[in-house]
Amino acid sequence: MTEVHSYDPLAPDTVADPFPAYAWLRDQCPVHKTEQFGHPVYTVSRRVDVHRILTDPWSWSNRLGPGVGYAGAERTGDIQRFDPPEHTARRKFARPEFNPVEVASLEPKVRALAAQMADEMAGAPQPFELHDGFALPIPILGFIDMMGVDREDRVRIKEWADELVKGLSDPYLAGPAIGELRRYLLERVRSVRSGAPMNDGLLRTYATREFDGAPLPEGEVANMLSQLMVAGHETTTSLITNMVFRLLERRELWEQVCADPSLSEVAVEESLRFDPPVLGLCRTNNEPVELGDEHLEPDTKVMVLYASANRDPSGFTDPDTFRLDRPWSELRRHYSFGWGMHHCLGAPLARLTARAALEALVQRFPTLHLAGPTERIAPEFLWGRRRLLVGW
Known about the structure:
By secondary structure, this protein is an alpha+beta fold. It has one domain (21-391): CATH 1.10.630.10. Helices cover 48% and strands 11% of the residues. The protein contains 17 helices and 14 strands. The strands form 5 sheets. The chain has a 5-stranded mixed β-sheet, with helices on both faces. A 3-stranded antiparallel β-sheet has the order 4-14-11. A two-stranded antiparallel ribbon has the order 5-6. It is globular and about 55 Å long. The relative contact order is 0.18.
């Protein structure tokens, strides 16, 4: 493991492989402070502190945004930005389409899409770039279908999503994409409400469903949909690429899944634990708080490192090894979908999509292998393989 003596979240070595730095934080500086973003940002890395913050949404707020910068009120409607009790009401508004029963009904479509992408992959030249050619299209096409918008728009949606996630480290980078995606969705919400024909899907449902006896303001609907759109495909794409990379990195693991495809469920959970697509997100404190040896004034940004908590030896045996024999009692402890009332709304869909993708690959490509160096995705607080060359 790389020797680490300090922590800089934007240092090239940290961005390339953050886990040695997270181990140093847990051991040497469990509450870390930096001013490099123009204001104090604290980082918590130990499982006990991560759990404490995630399970106390009354003290730790989402209203100022999940990134290191302070977001304004223009994102009203984004479920992630609400605190209880408003969060509870809006989650109830959005949840019916994401409950496990509804998601299970989507399984035939998701598996058919994964099989279709595997068929197209089989006819492509090698080496094959798995991110663009397989891992990206499955969740984005699946979610676009779920939204009820035109598939022809998927390239634009992906470009906007790439810009939006950069806002986690620099909110100014996301500004143009926020405006363009918002205008796109507002046009379609207005079109639905004017009586124009629209495919069945989340856009039509949220535009017409009542909240407290009246439709949500069109801006709130657009913001809710944009947040779900970005979260719904970017992280699932990374889940697929991370998982395939680790299984092929130690190829005996790939062979185990080929021999027993039921291991795909374990592989998905272990990938979430070992390589969470979201390394961490920020909360702010509503009241003055003592965190470790630090005194935090209200509305201080605190980065909650899910990825570090997922490898904390206090919660996981042999935490820095990717294992297909890890007991479920440990696998269920990971924080990659958050925890408590802010647990990711789309978690059942992400799990289904990743499992279907992996099973399609092992069935069609038992000889799959790595065929070149990988590259990580650009946003510093997200984690995935932007480039993953494979052959078979």
